[in-house]
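note to self — DONT lose this again. spent like an hour looking for the file last time. sequence + predicted structure for the chain T wanted, 371 res
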Amino acid sequence: MKIKKTNVALPAIHEMGRKIQQLSAETGLEYLFLQRGINSVVNIDLSEVVKNIDFNSKEIQTYPPSQGRAELREAINNEYFDGKTDISCISICGGGMPGIDNAFQIADVRKIYLPVYHWGNYHNAMKIRKIEYDEYDSFENLKKIIPELKDCAVLLGDPGNPFGNKYDDAEIFELIKKLDDNGTVVFYDSPYRRVFCGKADNFYQRLLEMDNLVILDSFSKSLGLSGQRLGFVHCKNAEFNHEMAVRLAFATNGTNAFAQILVEKLFTTEEGKKAVSDFKATTVAEITKNIKYLKESGLIANEFYNESVPTGIFAIINASEDKLLENRIGSVSLSKFTLSRKEEAAKYSRVCVSIEHKKLVEFFERMMDKK
């Protein structure tokens, strides 16, 4: 059989996960899984929420609409946009990655600009789909070349991956506005933002004035539902939304109905709202303590945070992937997050800081004691 090869490797976190599982089994010692991109402080408690779901209902046991259940899209409209958008602008997808992959394919652009340091799946998706890419080093760099970007797209992530860095909202909004006015398509990928805020946050509402903007979000991070594989895409362009619905219909025949109903209940019921609030409060408290500890211990690579603040569920550490592995800490080398600066990035690692504070301190203290 002839095969159409992608020539794309599986993500580095998969290989590191396999490696430390094997090492743990061989040695009988505990390893810290900080290579993953999931909130691991505490699971969201769904025990009261699922009592509101009829598992024998036709809603769960039939194909959902290709663009997603109207009830969930309305719940997202209220939760994220204060009811100020139209649900026809919202498409439900099987997690953030399918939304990104489809959005990249739908936008008819010459090339997509990625940050110099970026989540590898962006580039891999573009490679598989044969989409041209370029890179930008900073927001100031982008601003200088805006006239050249009219037939291109730009990806912005905030808080970002791999840095977990948060820019000032006013700065982000100003940049998106300039790009939008230029006719440049903006992919705003922000699955981590709602970990740290809730319905009172009006940033997405402010973005509704943009015509060339695609908002990409996921409930894997903000609700701790990585296993349910659910996210959404928002765009005001009717042709974009039609194409998204068609592609989702042929790729999935509708995204997991149970996951859609579960997220709807989390946004609309008192039990759901409490579960979300409790999950976020505990998660954010531990993330905040972890970042503070890493800063005070001199482990945060401050050179990557000159114009932003480490906030998200990731941070860059002044230690190589091999050094951390020697101390039973899983991570991903920063070199895996760049195409043009691999050599200089190899001495740093990305770690997930969304983990129990006591456990993180235990492992890093042991590492520093060996110095």
